[in-house]
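Much of our argument rests on the idea that a fold can be written as discrete symbols. Part of our work consisted of pairing the sequence of a single chain with a tokenised description of its backbone. The amino acid sequence and the backbone structure tokens for this protein are reproduced below.
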Amino acid sequence: MSGILELLSSFKGQGLLGFIIIAIIICILSYGIFMSTKLKNGYKNLRDEVDNGEVIDNESLEKNFREKSLINIVNQFKKSASRGTENINTEALISKYVTRSIPVNEKVLNLLPSFSIALGLLGTFLGLTLSIQGSNGVLESGVKTMDVFLKNMILPLQGMSSAFWTSIFGVISSVILNLLIQSAKREKDDFYDEFEDYLDNTLYSEYAFSFVTQFERFNDTISTSMITLAKDMRALFKEGIDELVSNINKNTVDMTESAKVLSNYTKDLQLVIESLNKSVDNFKEPIDSFKGAIDEFDITTEKLEFVMNTSVNKLSDKIDILSEVINNLDVSMGEQKEAIELMNKEVSGYKEGLELGYKELIRSSEGIEAVIKESNNRVSEQVKSLKEGYEGFEDGINDFVTNIENLREGIGEVILKVLKEELNNISEEMANKLNTPIKGIEEATESLSNNTRIIGELVKATNELIVEVYEN
């Protein structure tokens, strides 16, 4: 108890300088306590915010914060992770935004304990300096009596007391500030550790642009794209099927109408074909008749040829005999008068026979000429009928082709083209087939005309020969 009283007496007995320095140290201590407490509470509140943040995703454990600085840190960290930054300086990122929310200059705060010690030492040195200086002054003034000496030493002793009390307050302030600052640093470290753990081990794995993340995003993109593509293809396929069904129904109706129209024109074609068959049948009858006439002409020609050959042979024999008789006549003209008369009679008989043969030849020629005229008339009629039938068939084909062309919109260009080509081929084929018999008929007619002309020339030559023989 007496020690405490002595300390209080010593504290009270220090000089003004000591109180001033102690007051400054107390102010620094008060400021340090306030700032360190503020710093500690700030980090404590941030750590509580991290601990008690609302979890928005139970799988990734991502949290939602209300503190603006934490929100900014999280957003910046997400951006860095999504850009592919592998080594994010989390501590620097936290310090950048936390210092804005906690306006405490930690560097100045860390210097406050040193300031307290420095002020305490400064007071100690100043007090010791003043005490030594005062003691020297008392000693130099001389010691007259003990009472005067003790009275003069009061001020130097007070200065010595100030020197120690400033150091004591400086050390105590430094210890208190160091304790508070360390407590705030522990709170800061706890906040940093917990928040860095949340950022590095929770958010980074969720937002880091790594190979796994890229692969997952690629899978998500492919999955979404394939689902969208499947939906689009399903919609397009459905639209295509609907349009196809609509077109098929429309084309079915069009083809039904076209089939009806085609059926009508098929009936017209059937009528044309029946007409063509009738024309062919009509053409067959004249051809058969012409064939019969040709056969009859062949028979008549054979008979004429036989008669002509017989007459010519007889004429040749008679001429030979006549030649022999004339030769004998030249030898024995005078002696064979009777033979000449007999020969004249015989020649007269031959003349009569020759006249009869000539008349028979004339009748045969007239018959042949009549047959030829009749055959020519029949051939002309047959050719005319054939020509009319062919023209009728050609007109029917042209009418049918015209009708088919009118059906172009109903049955389509393809069917029209095929039918037109087939009908043209049929027309050309039938025309070619008809041209061949017509050419044969023309050739037969020309041959018959040539034979008639030859027979006429033969008859003419025979007449001239008979006249010449008769005159001789």
Remarks:
- The first strand starts at residue 54 and ends at 57.
